[in-house]
Amino acid sequence: MLRRLFLRAPTSYLQASHAYYFAPQLPTRVPPPAARSLSITRFLCSSSSSQVPNSTSIEHVEDDVNLSASPPAATISIDRSGLYNSPEHSHEPSPDSELIKHLKSIIKFRGGPISVAEYMEEVLTNPKAGFYINRDVFGAEGDFITSPEVSQMFGEMIGIWAMCLWEQMGQPNKVNLVELGPGRGTLMADLLRGASKFKHFVQSLNIHMVECSPTLQKLQYSNLKCEDENNTDGMVDKKTFSLLAGAPVTWHAALEQVPSGVPTIIIAHEFYDALPVHQFQKASHGWCEKMVDLAEDSTFRFVLSPQPTPATLYLMKRCQWAATEELAKLDQIEVCPKSMELTQTIAKRISSDGGGALIIDYGLNAVISDSLQAIRKHKFVNVLDDPGSADLSTYVDFASIRRSAEEVSGDVSVHGPITQSQFLGALGINFRLEALLQNCTDEQAESLRTGYWRLVGEGEAPFWEGPEEQVPIGMGTRYLAMAIVNKRQGVPVPF
Ligand code: SAH
């Protein structure tokens, strides 16, 4: 998401010296995009909240005037001697939130620090107080913005990709269309609106939304214009249908819960970047896992585990997939076991049921060093500051996704990553822009042009004549697209 469109200078939190200390550098900040409902992508951050323009919700643009517009847990003892936290990061005590109390109780109960992965998972998805759980975090009023929220063209292009794959699958009359982490449901809504004229395709769809947040599930229900089936005969399992496509919609907490046995198309946009990572730091005696501990003053701090942790197995696996020269350059490494496991679940499902998956995220086709970042209200903040009130995300390791998929099944092929710009360009976003510009207001035209630039451009928009601090930043090369498909489907468009 454009929340993650923020360019981020590499950070070096821990320095190997006699006294380890926490020394975060705030990421490079670039101005936020003006969006459909505007704010920041995870990788674009404003330098001040005053730079975030007012929410200018611009309604959905139709190309047909006759259509109405609608818009592993481990107990680890730590030698804390010699650890030092920079005083600049201490702050006045304020009442602890429920999540902070919970995190502190885990650390106290364990009698030692927790991994960065456990911290990240609790902060984002703790069922009671996780960042995503109780509120809408997107848009100008929220913390960051994503590509679907920038322009309807994003969801429409994903819809074209899904329809092309469906064609390659032989136009099955039943397909599971699964979205992992659908946010507000905007991508799926735009996909369905755009595809609604292709009756055979939409009639084949069973939509499955994999979402952990009850609040976002409700928002998705509303944005997909869902209605529950009339329960006249006392049926227990009422179905829900999206009026955008007449397709049944079901919500699940995990991909494993989506019924199998039906050809499947899976979309994961800015989902992988929210999966918890373990962080490792090279020390004189080898790789040590970075952990989250409590300081004497009861604030959170990073420490290094003096001995191997269970996650070291994943570090070893990831290192086996990398060239020696690549590893030699790194003194920090992030590994994401959940990404490896999810990819294997996806690959197995596609292998058995047919179909494919599209993964779009910011990241690299390489080992990730140190990318964990926190964004609150469109600004980068300290990862350990007031957990639960800021989004945490990381760069996605596409090379690891490829290896994970290839390792688990010989029936799938992996394509990409290619840049988002290449992906959307090849699917015809230019033509879609031209078509939409034929029939829109001046305000919509400006939103379409700036949204287009943000999705496929690189750097500052050359055509921008508005306030300098609001210049649209193109993130077309920061985001990458990768597909995993059943080999029966051949090479997916446009890889
Ligand atoms: N794809 C959307 C939202 C991205 S934010 C967009 O591009 O706008 C990440 C989304 O994944 C949110 O909807 C969040 O609630 C969901 N999510 C994060 N971790 C999850 C998990 N472990 N299981 C299910 N959903 C999760």
TrEMBL record:
Its EC number is 2.1.1.320. It comes from the Eukaryota. Keywords: Methyltransferase, Mitochondrion, Transferase, Transit peptide. It is an enzyme of class 2 (transferase). Its main location: mitochondrion. InterPro entries: NDUFAF7 (IPR003788). GO terms for cellular component: mitochondrion. The keyword Mitochondrion applies. The keyword Transit peptide applies. Belongs to the NDUFAF7 family. Arginine methyltransferase involved in the assembly or stability of mitochondrial NADH:ubiquinone oxidoreductase complex (complex I). Acts by mediating symmetric dimethylation of 'Arg-118' of NDUFS2 after it assembles into the complex I, stabilizing the early intermediate complex. This is Protein arginine methyltransferase NDUFAF7. It comes from Carya illinoinensis.
